[in-house]
Design a protein that fits this description.
This protein has about 110 residues and is an alpha+beta fold. The protein is about 25% helix and about 15% strand.
Length: about 110
């Protein structure tokens, strides 16, 4: 149940995501009864590919070293894993531990 109903739809760029597919940062979930929409943020899924993996650790490293920007607000939220308002080495550390299967990201 989500948004008060089990009657919902998940989309990515207006393409409907089936129940068996993964969802990623930036996907939209819509309550089909009320038409209320929410954006999905998957903590650590910085590149919105539906996986939290080494691609995300690489991207956060480039961001911290100022070699790449993260322009999308949803992706910035996914990168601020410890939710302190900054994307920094603390977030990178948590993400690396998750990808290495040492510790899961806690919400």
């Amino acid at each position: 149940q989500f948004l008060g109903t089990t009657n919902y739809q998940v989309t990515n760029n207006d393409i409907v995501i089936e129940n068996t597919q993964n969802v990623g940062t930036g996907y939209i979930i819509t309550n089909n009864d009320t038409k209320e929409k929410k954006t999905i943020i998957v903590m650590g899924d910085i590149n919105s590919d539906t996986y939290v993996d080494s691609g995300d650790t690489y991207l956060i490293k480039l961001y911290i070293t100022e070699l790449k920007t993260i322009d999308n607000d949803n992706n910035k939220k996914a990168a601020d894993i410890n939710k302190d308002g900054y994307i920094d080495s603390g977030d990178s550390y948590i993400l690396k531990k998750h990808v290495m299967k040492i510790e899961n990201i806690s919400l």
